Amino acid sequence: MRLLAKTILISFFIGLSFGTYLYFTYDHRPERIAISLLSAVTIGTLMMVVITFRHYGTAWVNNPLAKASVMVVMLVAAALTGSEITFILRALIITREAYMPFSGGSLYILNVLIVLVTGMPTYVSEEWKNVLDNRIVSQQYRLLQLEQQNTRFELELLRAKVNPHFLYNVHNTIAGLISKDPAKAEILVMLLSRFFRFTLNKSSATFHSVGDELEIVDTYLHMQYIRYENRMLYSISADAEIRQLQMPSFILQPLVENAIKHGLEVTPGSGYVHVSITTEGNDIMLSVSDSGPSFPETPGAGLGLQLVTDKLKLLYGDDFSLSWYNTPEKYVRITFPIQH
After folding, report:
1. Rounded to whole angstroms, how far apart are CA atoms 235 and 274?
2. Taking a C-beta distance cutoff of 8 angstroms, is the pair 19, 32 a contact?
3. Does residue 107 register a pLDDT over 90?
4. Are residues 190 and 96 in the same domain?
C-alpha cells in the first residue's frame, strides 16, 4: 500500500507537470491542467492496483513468461479502463459536456504505451523483490531450525552432565557407608536403583511434571537422611495442582544438593532442608532453604548451579531469575514461566 500511495503522488506531479507544459505551449485553458492531473492519477492508480494485487490474476499461472503475458493483458485493461474513467469524469466535472463512450481515439494507444513502459519494469521489480523476500524468509526459517536443533543438542549435553554429577556424589556416599554401616549402604543402593528406574524413562525429556521432579528430590533427600541419621530433617511442600504443572527436568536436585553440601555438612549438630514449589501469576517459584551458614555476598557457582543456569538460559533466555537470600531465612529461589 505504501507503493500505491507513492505511485499516486508521482502520478499527481507527472500530471501537474504535463498539464502545465500543455497550458503554456498551446492550450491556455486552466482545465487543461485539471484534465492532465485527472488522467495521470486515475491511470497511474489503476496501474499500481493491478500490480499490487496481481496475484489474483496470475495465481493460476506457474510459468514466468505466461505470468508476464497475463500481466500485459491486465495492464492494457487498466490503461483502457483508466482512460475511459478519465473521459467520464472530465465530462461530468470539468468540461460539462456530454460523455461519448469510446471516443478517445489515439489517446487509448498513447495511454496503453505509457502504462506498459512504466508498469512492466515495476512489475518485474516487484516480482524480484518477492523472490528475494521469499528466499530471506526461507533462510530465516532454516536458521531458526538450526538454532532449535543446536538448542536441543546443548540441552542433551547438559543432561548428560547432570546425571553423572549426581551419581558421582551418591556413589561417594554409598562408598563411605559400606565399611561403616553395610545395612544403610544396602538401603542406599536400593534407593539408587529406584532413582535409576525413574530417571531412565525421564532423562530424554526436556520438561516433566513438578511431581516427577519432586520424586527425584525426595529420593535424593531420603538417601541423605539415612546417611546423616538424626542430624538431618527435610520437608517438601507443593500443592496438588502445582504437581501437575510442567517444569524443566533435573534443575531442583542440584539446589538441594548444594543445600546439604554447603549447609548441613558444614554445620555442627542437626539441620534441615526445606523444598517449596509455589506459583505467582504466570511464574513457578522453586525455593530451597537450609539451616546452614549464610550465603556470601557473591555466592560461587559450582558445577551443579552452572548446569542449572545454562539450561534455564537455553530454555527461557533472560526470562528467569536465580536469587540467593539470607533473610528471613537462608534460601535460594528460581523463578521461570509456567510451561503451557
Report:
1. 5
2. yes
3. no
4. no
